[in-house]
Structure prediction request, 465 residues.
Amino acid sequence: MITRRNLLKTGGMLTTMPLFAPHMFWDKLTNYPIPSKTNNIKRFGDGRDWFFKKRFGMFVHWGLYSISGWHEQHQWRGQIEREEYSKLSEKWNPDRFDPEVWLDLLEETGMEYICITTKHHDGFCLWDTKQTSFNTMNTPYKKDVIAMLANACHRRKIPLCLYYSIADWHHQNYPNKGRHHELLPQKKDQPNWENYLKFLRAQVYELCTKYGEINGFWWDMNVPGHIDSTINQMIRRLQPNAVINDRGFDEGDFGTPERDFEADDSSGFSRPTEACQSVGMESWGYRNHEDFYTDQHLMRSIDRYLARDSNYLLNVGPMSNGTIPVESTEILKRIGKWYNAVKESLVNAKPASHLTSNRNIMLTGKDKTLYIHLNKEIPGNVIKLKPINVAPEKAVLLNDGREIDFIIRFNPSDHTEGKAYLSLINLPLNEFCNTVLVIKLTFNRPVEKLTLPFTPYDGDSNWYL
Prediction:
């Protein structure tokens, strides 16, 4: 039997020798179909390229809705009148908010940037805006949250991205018509889209000029579907290093699949992408008695996107006092332990799933190293890597550093091709049943050259073992 151990004893000789297909099948051999190679995503070629170096970020949904602790869209989903909801501002006093604590957790998790809701759909603003009195300065707290976070980010050289909702349930000029994520018309409404856009532009200008360098602008809820590229042009002029998402007034710089809504098994993306998910199943903002995703579900989601050259924002909803809930904190710490162990397979590694026909796994690679990502349900303790038929010099489980057994063999299930392929065997899946395994394979050749030509069976009676 050709295993990891005796392959290494031969000095790697077999890694350069093809294993042989039986002569009886030689006239039936065909190349096994594999996905075409995914082109690398084009970089911006300017200061926005930080986005391709820092792939994992923290998303924060925080505002008045944390006081009631039900959902960040409580006003809309709970059908609360504007005047009643606005009274929550009288209770806004997050006296335990410390941006350094947030950023400590961010770094422990392995995250490298942060995106915070400056104004969610309810219209409450977390900064000292001069455009509306519905902001943090006119509350018992009387502090500029965005300024506090920005100062901490700049000191620690952590990129800061700002979320801004176009839909606004508080501003009287926003045309709430009862469409999705809109209120029904309210008392004292004065719908005027042009006036609202003037308000919006003025607020965006404030955010882009008051807080030093901003590295991203994250639009949300362009319910009217208004197109106006001059708004993003203003952001680019004021903050040239800021990446802009695709939910604003033009296509922006990157796409934004949310939660697991866009299930996708493609080998890669055609444009820059940043997926987002929350640790809570019901709400992005703080929710009392939240239902949480399992660690494995979140790890699979993170791995599935990062392995395809995407970024990933994982969200937490701080409580009204400014602290991140214990449950959310513990989830991030556990994910961080996993992510920091496998990070080398996701950062500065390119998508390489085109190298195998196995759609139960994803691959990334760099130079002579291939990473095997087990981010789906794996039915057994083996991973077949057809059509790869070159043995690695070493196979290591990044999760804990142990070596993994491998073999090149002809399996009964491959009888129609009559070929031998590389398999990783005796995988400790039961031992790691609540995580995502990533296996590092080190070869003596570039990863694009791991399929050698086959020659007819030469009489070796052990070829099929």
User: Anything to note?
Assistant: Residues 128 and 144 are 6 Å apart (CA to CA).
